[in-house]
Design a protein that fits this description.
The chain is mainly β. Helix content is 2%, strand content 49%.
Length: 170
């Protein structure tokens, strides 16, 4: 008998949906929400929006994701490093799940998976170990800044095939 798909309603990025156990939200503070670190007539700088604990060289890249069905039967994890994703030119959706242990191995907890919609001009920093999948743009394609410790993609990437699909619903 095939496993039942996990259906998840897509929710906009917020501290309620993407809490501090998952990571940090990157967004320009709303007026009055916090004081700028530095400011002048020309700018307001808000430091410390998100912090990453990187031991070596920090790598930034741009990945262009193609639009596809809002479903996946795989999730990925970086067990040792954090990852930053920032929406440059369009919103994207992605599933995010915490870790559970199965037979001594880390697996995504599909009972607690969420689907977040990250608006253009905002981003997230995942705490190490949180499961996620490649962003799903809402238009033909969208560019996303990807940041993590250099060589994370080669040295700290675990992909799990799931028994069922995660189906994200708008």
């Amino acid at each position: 008998m095939a496993a039942t798909n996990t259906k998840v309603k897509v929710e906009y990025l917020s501290p309620r949906v993407f809490d501090s156990s998952m990571g940090q939200i990157i967004a320009t503070p709303k007026e009055g929400e916090r004081e700028p670190t530095l400011q002048s007539e020309a700018f307001k700088f808000y430091g410390g929006i998100a912090l990453m604990n990187i031991k070596n060289v920090f790598e930034l890249g741009i990945c262009v994701f193609n639009q596809r069905e809002l479903e996946t039967d795989q999730l990925e994890q970086h067990a040792l490093t954090q990852e930053m994703l920032f929406a440059i030119d369009g919103d994207f959706i992605m599933p995010v799940a915490p870790i559970i242990q199965k037979n001594g191995e880390a697996w995504p907890d599909l009972d607690r998976v969420v689907a977040i919609r990250v608006p253009m001009g905002q981003g997230v920093v995942f705490n190490h170990g949180f499961w996620h999948w490649a962003p799903f743009p809402l238009k033909a394609s969208a560019s996303v800044i990807v940041g993590f410790e250099k060589d994370t993609a080669d040295k700290d990437l675990v992909i799990r095939d799931l028994d069922s699909k995660i189906v994200m619903q708008l």
